[in-house]
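Hi C.,

You asked whether I'd gotten around to modeling the 406-residue construct. I have! Everything is below, sequence then structure, no commentary in between.
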Amino acid sequence: MVQRRFPRVNELRPLVGFNRPTFNRDAAALARCANLVDIRALARRRAPRSVFDYTDGAAGDESGLHRARDAFARVQFDPRVLRDVSNIDTSTTLFGQRISMPMVLGPTGFTRMMHHAGERAVAAVAAKEGIPYGLSTLGTTSIEDLAAAEPGLDRWFQLYLMTDRGYVKELVDRAWSAGYRTIVLTVDTPVAGRRHRDVRNGLTIPPRLSMRTVLDMALHPRWWGNVLTTEPITFATLSSTEGTVADLIGRVFDPAITVEDLDWLRGAWPGTLTVKGIQSTEDASMVVNHGADGVILSTHGGRQLERPPLPFHLLPEVRAAMGDEATVLIDGGVMSGADIVAAVCRGADAVAVGRAYLYGLMAGGEAGVQRVVDLLREELITTMQLLGRTSIDQLGPDCLRVPAQP
């Protein structure tokens, strides 16, 4: 027979615990997010449909994005045990700079559309965490304003080659004068990819008021309130801003760029030059032979070519071809610290993330970006500890197995 009794007060006391009440709903919501999937779900609730879809979507049937994430998900790690993992060093060197973890907050366009704090919020987190941040040509904060806001930040400038080469040279000179030391030349956007979600949503830059957007205000009053009571969302480095994304790219970007234009940029830029949008070993070797210091294997997050190659699977081949001659980064599909570990094990010097921190920006501004970086770092450390590796240089092909592509 079970004997029953009344519990004593001193036995109940350890069982009763109340969290200190907080009136900051955003902070509480972000704290409950256990991973980036939760952050994405929160962003979906906070941002208007067209804004979230612009960030979340990809080209065509969006298989390029889904396959990129699936490539990371299919990795099997090979852990080692009985090793002292009490101290983990996540720092590494990238283009001669020591950074706190092998990650760059990559360039994204129209950033103030996701949250009125925009690029400044992202740059503030990057500066605090000791990682680089790339400002886009399609950014909504100027080259000089970002430099003034975060003078200690390792600032990169992402460049599209436009038909007006004189203006491109002006941007390059402004970036160098403002203390940017790395140019990211993006070469996978000679024309705009077919992004069906944007077409269905009628997305324009800046967002236009219509019957649909007015109805959306009722569901997202805070977002619209911030948009309407802060500076208008405009491109800081472009004067032609009307219409859809495809309209803008068609008017401004040069579809006739060739390797000779890379030669021209190499001669015009005295700093580090990396080329983003590389999708083959041949092109990686070509741009390095023409003066690039590094490459970013990227499909623009699956937003350009439908059914593109997967940078994660291309990575070992490019790494072998490059050797120590060039720095190799990868982007697309990174949604966890374990993904960062997998990329480094496959040969990447670092990963660049875009969507990941934009989810955080939509979910909670600067605090949301901070939460994303915190989660990625925590997951990176835990994965390294469970693998039995204590520093980034211990991560290599022996740490994982990658099944053949289905």
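If it helps when you're writing up: The chain has one domain: 47-401.

Thanks,
B.
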